[in-house]
Structures are given as C-alpha cells and as structure tokens.
Amino acid sequence: MDGNRPAAQGLVHWSWIIWGALIATATCFALAFHLGLISRVRTSPSVNLVDPRFELIEGGAVGWDYRRSFEADLNEDGRPETIEILARVSRDSGRGDDYQWDDGQPWQVYVREGDQLTHIYARWVQLGHISVYVTDEPHPRLMIAEAQGAGYALYSVVYKGPGQFETTMVTEFPVRDGA
Predict the structure, then answer these.
(1) Is 17 a member of any domain?
(2) Which of 34, 124, 154, 169 lies at a C-alpha separation of 20 to 30 Å from 17?
(3) Percentage of the chain exceeding pLDDT 70
(4) Residue 73 is part of which domain span?
(5) Which residues contact 143 (CB under 8 A, 6 or more apart)?
C-alpha cells in the first residue's frame, strides 16, 4: 500500500466531515446573529433593582442632598426624558460639593417624563456608588454601573415609557483588591 493513497477507495476522510460540521455550525450562528435570533450581548433574565423596603422619593426630598440629572430621548419619541440620580447624604455646610458620606447610602434613579416618574433603581449601596450612562446606539439604553466594596455590577435598562422598562444584568464580578 502506498503512503500517499487512502486506505480505502470511495470513503470520505474523517477530517472532511469535521470541517464540514464546523463550517455548517459557523454558518448557522452567523445567520442567527444576522436575523436577530441570538443576542450578541449576554444578558440575564429581567432583574428588579427597586427594593420594596425603600420609600420612593423624588429630587428635593429632605436629606437627599446628592442629586445629578441629565436628559436623553430614551424611548425615541422625539422628546427628551430627564434621568435623576439621588443619594441620601447630607451636604457638608459651606464646602460646595463635599458630602458627608457614610459606609453606605440608599440610592435612587428615576426617569421623569412630563409629570410622571418611573423609578428604575432604589437600593442600598455599601461602601460604593453608582454611575448612570446613556449608550450611543440606534436604540439608546441606560447603563447603571454599581460599585460596592465587595464588587461591581453592570445593568442595562431599556425604557419605553412611564412604568414601562426592562432591566437586565450584563455582568457582575467580586473584587479582592484594586488600585
């Protein structure tokens, strides 16, 4: 038997079968991504970031001195909504933006559309803070980055209108040390 010839005539070599299966699998995934059947971003099922033990407040409430806001058209209706981020912490008198931070604070985030408020976040944050961003995408989302003493989490919020939103966890990870 010659070393350059297959052992049996007419049979398909096993490597061709494996390559064919890999190409077929890759083609199926590419088609599914293209058709939107599979998400490119790993997300979890919906999560609720509004702790029912907290009284829902709005800006100007006594003791909730940390307040930041910005506008964005989250539901693409042509009118910007106002996103407000609040923490229950007192301002240090006479020192501008200095606050009397404690080991943890309750934080709240809501979207104001006209005279309606939709709370999307109301939780205790231990040894940390939250940051809120709007994505630069065709369909904008809010991203809430939660930094706590023991780790980080990133949440995606799709806002469709008053009382209509969905929050999913994008990722979370514990930390041991950092700089």
Answers:
(1) yes
(2) 34
(3) 74
(4) 66-174
(5) 132, 133, 134, 135, 154, 155, 156, 157, 170
